[in-house]
Amino acid sequence: MRWLVGWSSTAAGALGGSVGYDGRHDGGAAYGGQEGREAQGGQVGYEGETLQPVGSQLLWGDPDPLWAVGDWRPDEVRVVKVDAQTRIAVLGTCGATDEQLRVGLFAARGGALRHLTAWPGSYTAIAQVGRRITVCGDLAGARPVFHTPWAGGTAYATAALPLADLVEANLDFGHLAALLAAPDVPAALHDSTPYDGVRRIPPGHALILRAGAREVAGYEPVASLAVAAPPADPDSAVDAVRDALIEAVRARLSAPRHVPDIDPGPVPGMGPAERRAARGMPVPGIGADLSGGPASGTLALLAAGLPGMPGTLLGHGTGAGERLVAVTFNDLAVGGREAELERAGALAANPRLHHVVVAGGEETLPYADLDGPLTDEPGPSLVLAARHRARLAAGSADHFTGYGARQVLDAHPARLADLLMDRKRRHLVRPVAALTKADGSVLVPARVYGAARRLARTSYRAGVEGLAERLLHRSFSFDDPSGAVGASLAALTWGGAGPAARWLTGEALAEVSVRLQGATHRTGVGPGQRPGDYRARAALTRHAMDLRVLEQAVEIRSQRLHAPFLDNQVVRACRALPETLRVQPGARAAILRTVLKGAGVTDLPHGWGAPSQASADAAARAGLRMAMDPLLTLFEAPLLAEAGLIEARVVRKALRAAAAGEPLPLDGLADLISLELWLRRLLSRRGTCWTGTPARARAVPAGIAPQRRAVSSGG
After folding, report:
1. Buried b / exposed e along 426-435 (16+ C-beta atoms within 10 A)
2. CA pair distance 439, 166, nearest whole angstrom
3. What is the pLDDT of residues 378-414, one digit of tens each?
4. I need a labelling partner for 308 at 20 to 30 A (CA). Which of 32, 332, 369, 392 fits?
5. β-pair partners for 327
6. What does the alpha-carbon distance between residue 711 and residue 715 come to, in Å, rounded to a whole number?
7. In this structure, are strands 3-8 and 66-69 parallel, antiparallel, or unpaired?
8. Cα→Cα distances 440→149, 433, 434, 435, 587, Å
């Protein structure tokens, strides 16, 4: 896990007064004053020990220090300094040169923050101009920024747990309830985190600190509800997506190669590849997922086809012979992906690719491994960690993944309401016809059109208040028809209840209802955009948050996962795609096919881009059956029940019913199980992220206090 952390102190603390662990100023007398503190970059903490993160490297010192923590590569941490009071730090993969960083710093000094987010790659930029510090988050939410009041100023980080340790934050039970009851509704989560008092800045915003005072400012233009956006040319928009994707891939390929730790020696009966996999070491070089789907296939072909390494054939140029490692996961326990495997094999026939097929049995089913590392936040992907770790263990030191392509390219069903608001009814014909063909009922067009029309005429405030009322009275529409039509109808709202809401207690649902009602009365609240665009952005944020959790849960030493579809420039290019193009059936595959054609790749296998016929529910149900005994033991005395969020008996009954084949929402059970696992790992951890603090100075120091009457919230 890698993160950065720093703080902005008050003006009084910067003028020679050191700050103790309890936040008191001593005027610089107790511990020798200010002398030498610039080199240490930390304030004086408990018993005179310097307060700084464990395992950190100092990027710049007092009065507003900044550290990078974790196993950062040398090229992933860059600091460009103009003078003693003007500098910028960029952490991650950034395609900007040092001169471009300087230009961006000068632009940010004048208030143009968007310049700091417009370079190819995935990174976090921190600019310091005098006592003003600007920390930019990304557009998707895969690189979030957190902050909390501390010692009269503000501490910030790209992880929430270090800040929770710093202030000894307790759990925010209202946030945990919202994660289960309404995970896709930004109004329910707002800026909260699982830790009480630790806040998250929204995607597309920056945290601005001035001598301890904080401000959150957006750097992206907001669409107007009064005036429709100018019509976009589809060809130009797709060309922009192609250019952004190519630049995103090139930024990774142009970074220095990193070889994992040296192989300590041979093992009888094992070759080099087997030794690396057994020891959890990735293969040196560049690799990519190759699932047979359009997103991973596009990235693999782009990475293998761009000039330079990898993808250079043996005997052609300097450093030739390095092929891109294409990893395909073959699920032997649950079938249904035979067509995708055939397409992956056809793509891997490219001489620039080295195809590796990872066979997964019952040991890679969901819930197969309930042990794992503690992640910064909970996420439903925790129950899939073993499945993904088996695939990534065969990957490379730099591994491309297609995560996020569906969220940035596909049309959320609520975009049908946007088309009605813009008087583009004729563009509803093809998507509605596709739903009708999938369902086989002649009533589908009327139902879908009616739901889209209701959403187009419903205000944001009315939609959120309606959801709050449904949660308060437990009036869930769980009897909606299944399949694509049912999912589309359920998505044609401003926000809906999560799949785990049916198993929450009345007190937990009432807590979430209160949070939603408070959001409607908050000053200036509103999406500032159409319902479809609003729901699509919320879905992207939710997916990026879970991907961040997955990356931490399956982390392999010396390996980096790259998700170019979540880069700022790629997200911007995809948002510029016209809605009339998005809503057409097969739009994602058609866009990516055009992207590859523009990059010179035209030989694609038959059926490339066809939707998968395999269902994730089959694997989830099989995993539930295999892990039933450990899961029932997990919910004998769950921490979620101590917190007042669930009743253990109800969840155990639901687990048995789901394993028996009853039509229950398996993703809701995954939310419950992953949150329970995360809470147990959090409370069983030892130590803290900081030196200079007593051993008790860590998040949730008192454990979970029983919540029998109502769920407490740090709202």
Report:
1. ebbeebbebb
2. 54
3. 999 999 999 999 999 989 899 999 999 999 999 899 9
4. 392
5. 289, 356
6. 11
7. antiparallel
8. 57, 10, 10, 8, 22
